[in-house]
Amino acid sequence: MAATLTDRYIDATVRTLRPHLQEDVREELATSIADAVEARLEQGESADDAERAVLNALGDPGVLAAGYADRPLHLIGPRYFMTWWRLLKLLLWIVPLSVMAAVALGLSISNAPGGQIIGTAVGVGISVVVHVCFWVTLVFALLERVGGDPAPTWTVDQLPEAREDSASVSHLVGSLVFLGASIAAVLWDRFRGFVVLDGEIVPVLHPGLWPVWMLVFLGIVLGEAAVAVAVFRKRRWSAATASANTVLAVAFAAVSLWLISTGQLINPEIIAAIVLHGGSDFHYADLQSANEGGIFRILAVLLGAAIIAVCAWDGFDGWRQAWRARGRMRG
Length: 331
Hints:
The longest helix is centred in the C-terminal third of the chain and has 37 residues, at 294-330. This protein is mostly helical. Helix content is 74%, strand content 1%. The protein has three domains: 5-69, no CATH class; 81-151; 169-330, no CATH class. It is built from eleven helices and two strands.
């Protein structure tokens, strides 16, 4: 005897259920379908039409079976979604950039070509993004299915602190104090000295930087001060101030990196004094490390990486503040 539509529907529903549930669900479904069909027959529908209408109303057997088994049909549901989303965003900000920076730093120390550094770092960064998304999502998908502890209940104690206005007096004062301290440190190094050898002042910065490159440095510092004052006067960041801030950050990074790469930033007398006072072991380490670049090449690469990181954050932060200010104005 050929199986009816009802038999086929019930079989499709219970086949994915655990054995101890199948018989109970089969009986429950058969009873509910029969009752629903009978109600339609009493309204004058034919048997075939009534059966089809009832089964169509029940929907996909797989969805119905998931309801009986209490099995989620979504990857990550509302219980864990916000926790997953916040963690994923945080990790995507931190992990790929950190790994890319580490790879680029290592290749730079080993004196790899610029194209290889960029290509390798970008490739590794893309791979890390894929892995972070996959593994974080997999963990939360498993939590969704195995149960585990429920997500913590949200309370007002978890509200973020109010963001400090970037155009506040404290921000302006802090910026001007930092810039002033930078100028003071450069002047102190030149005329009073941080390092004194045999009673003589030995500047850390290359004496050849005076006066041309120091005037360039002074111009960048004054430009940064002007941007800080402009932001304070307008009470907000704008596209103009963010652009000016980015240009100044790029200019400082470009000049600094060029001076580092050409050996014009650090006073060679300081390097010679370090080698001399470090003895033969230090000198040997300098000759043998970093693929003929020496330990000073490693220090130069680290200094350059720090400058790039600081300047990149400075430029990004200006545009971030400008975007927030634009959003507040729209609101």
